[in-house]
Amino acid sequence: MTLKTKELYADISLFLVAVFWGVTFLPMAKALHTNGVFTILFWRFLIAFLLMLIISFKFIKKADKNSIKHGAILGLFLFMGFAVQTFALKYIPSSTVAFITGLNVVFVPFVVFVFFAKKIAIYSYIGALLSAFGLYFLSNTELGFTKGELLSVICALAYTLQIVLTSEFVKKSETMVLVSVQFLVVAILSLFCAVVFESSAIPVVNFDFITAVLVTSIFATVIAFYVQTKAQEFTSPIKTSLIFTFEPVTAGIVGYFIGKENISQTQIMGAFAILFGIIISEIGSYKKHSH
């Protein structure tokens, strides 16, 4: 299999991950009516960690310090993204939080260039800017500069670092260990925050909670994060962040057809802008490999 074919398969896999994550918005929103964010996150990542432990037992026995350290760092940034995003929602509308968080698509190329001195193709910049415009129209947001916006920017930076560092760490670590440790760190930190901010991590067990936790832990966590980590061996962090902008598009489609939510023409235009951004980046990578 050629390097280009591997990259294409990796990109398709990441696209499916973005779809998985988009689909989980609706069950998560329903579960949040009766349970706290950190309680749900704790059970989601605890179950995901235990499943990874069963699946990858023979790999876990080969755990090395590097993989554990790298997994812990990724887990810290992943949790930071979830936690800061949660607090941002207290101050500004969810649409604004979603837009600013999605701006990691713009941050990633600059972080890669500044910290890893890697040249960025013009196609990546065009794709990133198109997706950023698309996110703005999709989220239908009004921007200011309050505590909420600042927290959302920190959230976007946390997700940016998680994506960029995954590309670096996966080359130096055992993938199963890297992913497992990441889940464990998020579970522990979520437990701490659930006890501090939500009084306990004991959930209100109902249909919505069980559905959300099972769907997110199996599909949106174990499968999705393993696929993301593995795929980033063969594709760039810039394309990863671009493809992940399809997550809110999927959430919008599911919300419209299943949740009976309204979608405006502006939001549809935003979705198409994101799609074009991804396509331009993909075309750019083909041109690069064809030279």
UniProtKB/TrEMBL annotation:
Main location as per UniProt: membrane
Top-rank taxon, per record: Bacteria
InterPro entries: Diverse_Substrate_Transporter, EamA_dom, EmrE-like
Topology of the protein relative to the lipid bilayer: Multi-pass membrane protein
EamA domain span: 10-139, 147-280
Transmembrane segments: 12-29, 41-60, 72-92, 98-117, 122-138, 150-170, 177-197, 209-228, 240-259, 265-286
Pfam families, sorted: EamA (PF00892)
Gene Ontology CC terms: plasma membrane
Cellular localization per UniProt: Cell membrane
UniProt keyword Lyase, yes or no: no
Record keywords: Cell membrane, Membrane, Transmembrane, Transmembrane helix
Record protein name field: EamA domain-containing protein
Species of provenance: Campylobacter pinnipediorum subsp. pinnipediorum
